[in-house]
Design brief:
It contains 15 helices and no strands. The chain is mainly α and about 425 residues long. The chain folds into 3 domains: about 55 residues, no CATH class; about 280 residues, no CATH class; about 30 residues. Helix 7 runs antiparallel to helix 8 and helix 10 packs antiparallel against helix 12. The longest helix is centred in the first third of the chain and has 32 residues.
Length: about 425
């Protein structure tokens, strides 16, 4: 046990530091959101607890801890307690492969030469010996590069995960079980309706969310988030530009789908208070409710970080944070970009009204998914024929303008049918 701790102490420290920072960030993001809401509504906001209200998150945390933990008698107790645990654990586990600072992709191993056939000619044998010698040199260079990579600290809990983006989607999709179990186990009709809405909403918006990322994966040639970042850094590869320039439509689809996945306004139908009191967590209070809310905020941070990584170069910023820049500068740029998207979450919440549920589902199935499929086909066409990726920008603009023109067409009036 001691030997294991000595070998992996840095990883364990990173896990504790990141998870602790996430929980602290969520507490103060609640304060930021209340301040943003007050600013947009011409109010003051929290200002009583501590200077400028900075101790309000501590007061809220103490309130959650001291509240009486009530478990109603009519609920399924095991599933009722399991639901918030699923919500928080999936949200925190998904962040484990998200690079949050200076990272670099691991070196790729060389490809071994093909073995000789039984009746090889002298020329084939000489060529095989030459390729074997080149392979040995490449293998030695790879081993040295791998050793140097292991010695450098990577700002991610689980570095060099080749299925990073797929892992995040797989874990995040499990969060719907927490919502469904919370609504079903409460034995409450309002909670049940919230759980049913959430299952339909999250499953529907996972489709355009995943399709919007497939184009980025095809352009990069990897599911590894570190490689996706470095593919956007100038001087490192052939692309050298942020993916937002080539995939603006994919970014818009990812942004809208992320709001629906996080149950944020204008897509908070699973918990809208006007119709369902509190939705799937109506029967929850105290720390059980806090775990649900904490999971939503961590999911919001994760999706904001993914927007930065997939479309805005991660830690890279031209002339400020380049490939050889100081690690602290890279961490600062990544944090500022992520904070910008979190603030966008908050501004949109207090700007747009809530959709109706039929509008919510129609947006996913009749608008976002067809646009995502067209964008994916365009990326495949460009990659197949080795065309310039700037064509994808034109396709994105054309699809967006065409969709707007179709939506602007007046719809035929509905015929009223008399009911006898």
């Amino acid at each position: 046990m001691i030997e294991f701790l000595m070998q992996h102490w840095l990883t364990l420290f990173t896990i504790l530091a990141v998870f602790g920072a996430l929980q602290g960030a969520c507490a103060y993001l609640v304060l930021v959101e209340r301040k943003v809401c007050a600013w947009m509504q011409d109010r003051i906001g929290p200002n009583r607890v501590g200077p400028l209200g900075l101790l309000q998150p501590l007061a809220d945390g103490i309130k959650f801890l001291l509240k009486e933990e009530v478990v109603p008698s009519h609920v399924d107790k095991f599933l009722f307690l399991l639901a918030p645990c699923i919500a928080i654990s999936t949200a925190m586990l998904a962040f484990s492969v998200v690079p949050f600072g200076a990272t670099e992709p691991a070196p790729l191993p060389p490809i071994a030469p093909s073995p000789l056939v039984q009746r090889a000619t002298d020329l084939q044998k000489a060529d095989f010996q030459k390729r074997t010698g080149e392979y040995q040199l490449k293998l030695k260079a790879y081993q040295e590069a791998s050793e140097a990579y292991r010695k450098n600290y990577q700002w991610v809990i689980a570095p060099n995960v080749d299925i990073g983006i797929l892992f995040i989607f797989a874990i995040s999709s499990l969060a719907v079980y927490g919502v469904i179990l919370g609504g079903w186990s409460a034995n409450n009709k309002y909670s049940m309706l919230g759980g049913l809405r959430s299952s339909a909403q999250i499953i529907s918006y996972e489709i355009p969310l995943g399709l919007s990322v497939v184009g980025i994966v095809l352009l990069t040639g990897s599911l590894n988030l570190e490689r996706i970042i470095w593919n956007q850094v100038p001087g490192v590869n052939s692309q050298g530009m942020w993916n937002i320039f080539f995939q603006p439509l994919a970014f818009l689809l990812f942004l809208i789908s992320s709001y629906a996945e996080c149950n944020r306004l204008p897509f908070d139908l699973p918990e809208c208070e006007q119709e369902l009191i509190g939705g799937y967590h109506t029967e929850y209070n105290g720390m059980k409710l806090a775990l649900f809310l904490l999971g939503e905020y961590i999911h919001m941070i994760t999706t904001s970080a993914l927007m930065v990584i997939l479309f805005f170069g991660g830690w890279h910023f031209p002339w400020i944070a380049e490939a050889n820049s100081f690690w602290g500068l890279k961490f600062l740029m990544f944090s500022l970009k992520t904070l910008g998207f979190i603030l966008l979450y908050m501004i949109i919440r207090w700007t747009l009204p809530r959709f109706r549920f039929d509008q919510l589902m129609s947006l996913a199935w009749t608008v976002l998914i067809p646009m995502a499929l067209i964008n994916l086909v365009a990326v495949m066409f460009v990659k197949e024929f080795s065309l310039t990726p700037w064509l994808l920008t034109l396709v994105s603009i054309a699809v967006f303008v065409g969709s707007g023109m179709i939506a602007a067409q007046p719809s035929a009036p509905r015929r009223r049918v008399a009911v006898s």
